From TrEMBL:
SMART domains: GGDEF, HDc. This is Diguanylate cyclase. PROSITE patterns: GGDEF, HD_GYP. Residues 308-498 form the HD-GYP domain. InterPro entries: GGDEF_dom (IPR000160), HD/PDEase_dom (IPR003607), HD_GYP_dom (IPR037522), Nucleotide_cyclase (IPR029787), Rev_trsase/Diguanyl_cyclase (IPR043128). CDD domains: GGDEF, HDc. It comes from Acetobacterium paludosum. Residues 184-320 form the GGDEF domain. Pfam families: GGDEF, HD_5.
Length: 498
């Protein structure tokens, strides 16, 4: 009975038999349209997989119940990144809340989060969309490179390249935002570095830049907590302070002054920093930033005028100490030159004012060398042509320094000319003969003699006889021949005085 109902040649039910493929099909080619549809679906599926492989996103799939699972990604490190994201409970909780919102509203939503990866903070953008079948597609893209670039461009637009604080553009934009607004308790402070041009002219712009950087750090330390600190000019800084009274600013300025004094008195300070400052206070009412800025600028300028000359003298004294620290003003060198030049001057019956200038010149003729790098000053071998150009600039730098000091201003022109030669081959002016001041002609001989008879980085000391012969050989070229003769005559007297 049972065998009666078992059909003969029963065909196995397979995909091929259903759609009409092969000898075992139920009906060959009966389902040709279905076959075509399946092939089209396979083609679409292949395209989808290829598309997913090309997009730079991490893909997750979720549902309204809060279940989230990986869907696919093209990133080589995606599995690790995906794992780190799914392990972060805070991020997953936030994603579930956004998913609930998307399920309820049926509207595409965006979410942003940050997460440390490989010791670097990464920025991620998340886009969440719900499908017609209530599946939630979560696309996560690493935006770190883009955010970093945007931050860099923003820094270029808003920050000063040297000091890394806000620039003038940012400062002015901040004032523009509150222009003609009803504001209470707003203060603008302007601070200016005293003598920066002098530092640039004598020590060079690299030293000047370091002064600016150090100053900005001090100002930022004491005023950043109050408001916006900006570099508004080459040597000028501005601060916009809100919701503070003048008494608070006065205290902060006093603390800044104390900190600068401590810095200036420290033994390792390569330079001194002096600031002039002024501020303007707006108590209440409609604000006019331009008027307030002008008032602060006037107050700062008045503060600067009261101490300008003393600041210059202080800077010169600082440079003198710096020169002494470099061993270019040693007591022995100065004293020996002074003794020998005095004997020559007395033999010539020079007036006392000339003798006084010679004394100052023997001590400060090389003060311009504070602006020359140690790599050149202390080089044990010969200088290159480019290095000689730098070295020869010390006489010009020295003149600038002396012109800023009431004590040295009278000998500034002598400092400029102390490397001129009798035959006109010296520098920087190429003067010759009697056009070279007598003080400089005397200094040329005594300085050369003392330099030759003492150790230098590039050679050991020469004997006295060798040094004298060298001066005699250079008579009429480097040295005034008449002064060379006098030098020979009085030399024994000089030796006896030592």
């Amino acid at each position: 009975m049972n065998e009666y109902y078992i059909p003969k040649n029963k065909k196995e039910i397979t995909r091929e038999s259903i759609i009409g493929l092969g000898e075992n099909s139920f009906k060959k080619n009966y389902y040709s349209e279905l076959q075509t549809k399946l092939l089209d679906l396979e083609r679409v599926n292949s395209r989808s997989r290829a598309l997913i492989a090309t997009i730079p996103d991490i893909l997750l799939i979720g549902d309204e119940n809060g279940h989230i699972a990986p869907f696919g990604s093209s990133l080589n490190c995606a599995s690790n990144v995906t794992l780190e994201i799914m392990r972060n409970q805070t991020i997953m909780d936030d994603l579930k809340q956004v998913i609930q919102s998307v399920v309820a509203s049926k509207v595409l939503s965006a979410y942003y989060f940050t997460m440390p990866l490989n010791e670097q903070l990464h920025y991620f953008e998340v886009r969440i969309q719900i499908s017609e079948f209530d599946e939630v597609l979560i696309m996560i893209r690493d935006m770190t490179e883009r955010v970093t670039l945007e931050n860099r461009l923003r820094d270029l637009a808003e920050k000063d390249a040297l000091t890394r604080i806000a620039n003038r553009h940012f400062f002015e934009a901040a004032l523009e935002e509150i222009d003609h607004q009803e504001i209470k308790n707003l203060i603008i402070i302007l601070l200016d570095i005293d003598g920066l041009k002098f530092v640039n002219d004598t020590l060079g712009h690299l030293a000047g830049d370091q002064v600016i950087i150090t100053t900005s750090q001090f100002i930022n330390q004491y005023f950043q907590r109050f408001g916006i600190v900006s570099r508004v000019g080459g040597d000028e800084f501005g601060v916009i302070v809100r919701n503070q009274l003048p008494e608070t600013i006065e205290m902060a300025l006093e603390n800044l002054k104390i900190a600068l004094n401590d810095f200036n008195e420290s033994s390792d300070a390569a330079f001194k920093i002096s600031l002039s400052y002024g501020y303007a206070y707006h108590a209440s009412g409609c604000l006019h930033p331009d008027f307030l800025f002008q008032e602060a600028d006037n107050n700062m300028y008045q503060n600067k005028l009261l101490k300008e000359s003393s600041i210059r003298n202080s800077l010169v004294k600082t440079l003198m100490k710096a020169l002494a620290a470099k061993d270019y003003i040693t007591e022995g060198h100065t004293n020996r030159m002074h003794a020998l030049s005095t004997i020559i001057g007395q033999h010539l019956h020079l007036h006392q004012n000339i003798m006084d200038r010679i004394q100052l010149l023997t001590k400060f003729h090389d003060i311009g060398k504070v602006g020359i790098p140690d790599s050149i000053l202390k080089k044990p071998s010969g200088l290159t042509p480019d290095e000689w150009k730098v070295m020869r600039s010390h006489s010009i730098i020295g003149e600038r320094i002396a012109n800023e000091s009431s004590d040295l201003k009278e000998i500034s022109h002598l400092i400029l000319k102390h490397h001129e030669r009798w035959d006109g081959s010296g520098y920087p002016l190429g003067l010759s003969g009697d056009k070279i001041p007598i003080e400089c002609r005397i200094l040329a001989i005594v300085d050369s003699f003392d330099a030759m008879t003492n150790d230098r980085p590039y050679r050991p000391a020469l004997s006295i006889d060798t040094a004298i012969n060298e001066i005699i050989n250079c008579s009429g070229t480097q040295y005034d021949p008449n002064l060379v003769e006098i030098f020979i005559k009085v030399f024994d007297k000089y030796i006896q005085s030592q």
